[in-house]
């Protein structure tokens, strides 16, 4: 869940702002995410539990992005352009 306390976000926001300005391609983003996950795994230890926890965090971040950002965007586009078929 990405909704950590506002005071806890402060320790990450400067680094996130800097990274977001430097990431210009999908490859850059993939590299940054992969490198971060690898570093976390190296720090915590390479074992199944830690790998499973990281995969879970990545899946939850993906799901939350789809629910909060993509879902409303797709709803707006469906209203603007109409349904694909009667199944919608």
Assign the structural class, choosing from mainly alpha, mainly beta, alpha/beta, alpha+beta, or little secondary structure: mainly alpha
Cα separation of the termini:
29 Å
Largest sheet entry: none
Helical segment count: 3
Proportion of beta-strand residues? under 5%
Mean pLDDT: 96
Helix and strand run:
HHH
State the helicity in percent bands: over 70%
Shape annotation: extended
Secondary-structure topology with pairs:
Elements: H1 6-22, H2 26-44, H3 48-81
Could you explain how this protein is built, in words?
By secondary structure, the protein is mainly α. It has one domain. 80% of the residues lie in helices and 0% in strands. The protein contains three helices and no strands. The longest helix has 34 residues. It is extended and about 50 Å long.
Short structural description:
The protein is mainly α. It is 80% helix and 0% strand. It has helices at 6-22, 26-44, 48-81.
Give the key terms.
extended; 88 residues; 3 helices; 0% strand; single chain; mainly alpha
